[in-house]
Amino acid sequence: MNILGPIINVLFFPAGLFVLIIGLAYLWVDRKLVAQFQNRIGPRWFQPLADVVKLFFKEEVVPDGVDARFFVGLPILALAAALTTALYVPLVGLQGAYNFPGDLIVVVYLLSVVTMSLALAGSNTASRFSLIGATRTLTQLFSYEAPFLLALLGPAIVAHSWQINTINTYAGTHWILLTQPIGFVIALVGLMGKLELPPFDAPEAETEIVAGAMTDYSGRGLAIFQLAKAVEMVVGLTLIAALYLGGIGNPIDFFAKTLILLLFLAGLQSLFTRFRIEQTVKWWRYAALLVLAQWVIMVVLGQGVLS
Amino acid sequence: MPENEYQLMELTVDDLKEMKGLVSQRALDGDTVLLNMGPQHPSTHGVLRLLLELDGELVISCIPDVGYLHTGIEKSIEDKTYTKAIPLTDRMDYLSPMSNNLGYVMAVEKLMEVDVPLRAQYVRVILCELQRISSHLVWLGTHAIDLAAMSVFLYCFREREKILDIFEMVAGQRMMVSYFRIGGLWRDLPAGFEDAVRAFLGHFPSEVDEYEGLLKNNPLWINRTQGVGVVTAEDAIAWGMTGPSLRGSGVNWDIRKAQPYSAYDHFEFDVPISEAGDVYARFWCRVQEMRQSVRIVEQALAKLPKGPFITGNRKVAPPPKEELAYSMESLIHHFKLWTEGFTPPPGEVYVSVESPRGEFGCYVNSDGSPKPRRVHFRAPSFANLSALPLMTKGVFIADLVAIIGSIDIVLGDVDR
């Protein structure tokens, strides 16, 4: 049992197959919602899965002038990092499969590994569109990373713990959204930046630089990157729901809270136009200042009032 | 990386020699990056190739390269009779075939000195203004999608669909209408046309408000468009820009007002002008123009006269089919028109109309034969596009996309 447990945890539940399925399902919900906002019908329920299966069966073209090891390895690294995070977050209302003090930081940085892999993959290929995309991905990463992390640490401070499970339990009795609204907004918008959704989709702006860092990817590599993004979305939504929206105690809690957040994200996606990359940076500078201001308020008022 | 693989990515020395004078010395030294944007690229609005010299995200120079959609339409017309050339004009600026038809038939009418009945003139105005709305809707949608406002794109196409339905009703074709004929129209308006247009006009103004509001009240859109791609009035005139792109720079020049043609002097409408000369100003002008077009169509529909839809001049307009049964003369006219066409006197004319993109001019040179010796079209997209390098000096790549969208080019119009 001692060996079987971890294997199941890693390969099937909660990481592995399960989170992939949830990721694809959420991707479908997102696409369907955006389609409805945009006066379209939208895809059928199995479309994201069908896309991935199709891409897996297609030839993977490794272009000239790239390091093939990185080209093949980086998508896998991205997916591995995304799947690992699923072990620590309270998916479907269950406690994370593993936890240790400080796993919140690990999750945030593993999510950044996904973005880093994408940027490295972009700079690895010879296409200039990829190169511009990679530069933008990194620029954006550096600008949203700090405010996003600060926003996620707000709940950690009031809960006196950097362990997701502890914060989740604490949040079950305290709606941190009400005491730290700025942090919530910035965490949510940070997630949009992480997922490269409009208005922060300059790194993969298809009307400017084709597909950004992923321009040269086809077949398997592209499919794996898409899966990594899907998992990242579920983990990100779970994290924000657990930290800010009164914690996640049971499956109904999980689905209700994450889907409401997704509805919100889909609405923003279909409303906004794209930031220019230097405007993105400027926006995040203000965001970082706002989070810091919130921290100052927290310190001045004292944690007793807020908790 | 091995040397031979590196060669695949870089331009050869001969390529660079060719580019001397087009790009800066820094590009030749390898300090800046040369990037081919297009011909297959989603936001060059067709098969436009832009050679960009980039310093990071900044555009140092932008060299438009046209000709990928060259159709040879001007040359093909030389081998067609005057009437048979009309369908070719649809295919130049494929977003405003009505205006193209109008420019061409007016030129031939001027050459032949044919009078067009008032009803035909009014119908032409109605259809051209509907065409302007539909073209501007495509522009608004694609311009918005360039800046990632995908929703606006889909909303615009929903409205455009209704205009295309009206076109299908009158011409049997949604896009390549070929509805205007020399001397009038192909057929009279079908029953139900006026109701269909009124139904469209009834809800369209509120839709425009909605689309405009989606963008105008969006600070992201304002940030992306205001102060970007500024072109001064002097430059705009010097580069031959026309249409909303020129009026966005504060020049009051609209051929519908300056040299009224067809029945435009019968209607009241304003010409929207903005002083700023940036992407937002051009956006604003076009959105306002849609509202003015609604005004014109409403007036024309209210005053639509009864009467013939094509001239009675049998030299250019075919007689009605039923006349052929009893009139020998009609039979001869029909036969002549359908075998040889008509022969205008030798001479040359130039006529221009205000197409959705600007001044669409048509030059026809006749040598007295049934086929034109030379036809040349002054394409508004071509002149507007030529000002692109001026507007894009030192902007970001993201702005470049916005600027291309704001001059509203149609590549079929650029490469006739």
Explained architecture:
The complex is a heterodimer of chains A (307) and B (416). Chain A has 14 helices and no strands. Chain A is mainly alpha-helical and 307 residues long. Chain A has one domain. The radius of gyration of chain A is 19 Å and the shape is globular. The mean pLDDT of chain A is 82. Chain B is mainly alpha-helical. Chain B has two domains: 60 residues, no CATH class; 311 residues, Orthogonal Bundle (Cytochrome-c3 Hydrogenase, chain B). In chain B, helix 7 packs antiparallel against helix 14 and helix 9 runs antiparallel to helix 14. Classes of the chains: A mainly alpha (307), B mainly alpha (416). At the A-B interface, helix 6, helix 10 and helix 13 of A face helix 1, helix 7, helix 8, helix 10 and helix 18 of B.
Assembly annotation: heterodimer
Q: What global shape of chain B is seen?
A: globular
Mean pLDDT of chain B, to the nearest integer, reads: 85
The coarse overall form of chain A would be: globular
| CATH homologous superfamily caption of the largest domain in chain B | Cytochrome-c3 Hydrogenase, chain B
Span of the ends, CA to CA of chain B: 44 Å
Greatest chain-chain interface?
A-B, 33 and 37 residues
Number of helices of chain B: 19
Query: Structural class, from secondary structure content of chain A?
Result: mainly alpha
Strand and helix layout:
The complex is a heterodimer of chains A (307) and B (416).
Chain A: H1 4-11, H2 17-37, H3 47-57, H4 68-85, H5 103-124, H6 128-159, H7 164-171, H8 176-179, H9 181-194, H10 206-209, H11 219-244, H12 251-271, H13 277-301, H14 303-306
Helix pairs in contact in A: 2-11, 2-12, 3-11, 4-5, 4-11, 5-6, 6-9, 6-13, 7-11, 9-11, 11-12
Chain B: H1 3-9, H2 13-18, H3 25-29, E1 33-37, E2 49-55, E3 58-65, H4 73-77, H5 86-90, H6 97-112, H7 118-146, H8 150-171, E4 180-181, E5 184-185, H9 193-216, H10 219-225, H11 233-238, H12 244-247, H13 255-258, H14 279-302, H15 328-339, E6 347-355, E7 358-366, E8 374-378, H16 380-386, H17 388-391, H18 397-407, H19 411-414
Antiparallel strand pairs in B: 1-2, 2-3, 4-5, 6-7, 7-8
Helix pairs in contact in B: 6-7, 7-8, 7-14, 7-18, 8-9, 9-14, 14-18
